[in-house]
Amino acid sequence: MKWIRTLRWRTAQYLELRWWRWYLRGRSPATYLVDKQAYWQRLLDQLQFTIDPDAQVLDAGCGPAGVFTLLHDRQRVTALDPLLPRYVTLPIFSFEAYPTVTFLPEPLEEARLHETFSTIYCFNAINHVSDWSQSLDTLTRLARPGTRLILSSDVHRHDWLLPIFRALPGDALHPQQHLAADYRNALSRRGWRIDREQELRRERIFSYRAWVCTYA
Question: Known Gene3D superfamilies for this protein (predicted)?
Fold first, then answer.
């Protein structure tokens, strides 16, 4: 079934670019990128995730400063994000800065990719999509036996708040609102073995969690 670009998703995409412009005001682009690369390395270390040199990998929902900024000269990276043509207006991103990365300005749901990847990184992106199930299907389609996946997302800590946030735009940047159990179940149903789950940050409403998985 063809996926639908919902109004909520379109609004979130518009707000995402505005958020980046606000967030970067007064920041040094060079310093920000150095700090961001250090953050990615710390996160991979925290998840006890080793980087396979020269592996063919996907940075799904890469944003303007995704993990590709760390891995562009260490792995063969394809980076996917529908806002890439607009991110060039930000001082931290240009296509020319990463000549070895293959950039695709497409939503995850309609990624026109026919190859599979040995590693898929999907950091803080799966809750930005329009169609959650189809996006997870796409990540699975792009895997092969033994593919490793890191998936991270904010998840609700309280069951009773979930229907409220789904009904009302309480979190306008994130069209998808789910529990950690929803991710576990969805990954397992698609053939992913969850090797590690880790809470990276806890807030009053949300928990930011990561899952390290292997496609069986």
Answer: Vaccinia Virus protein VP39 (3.40.50.150)
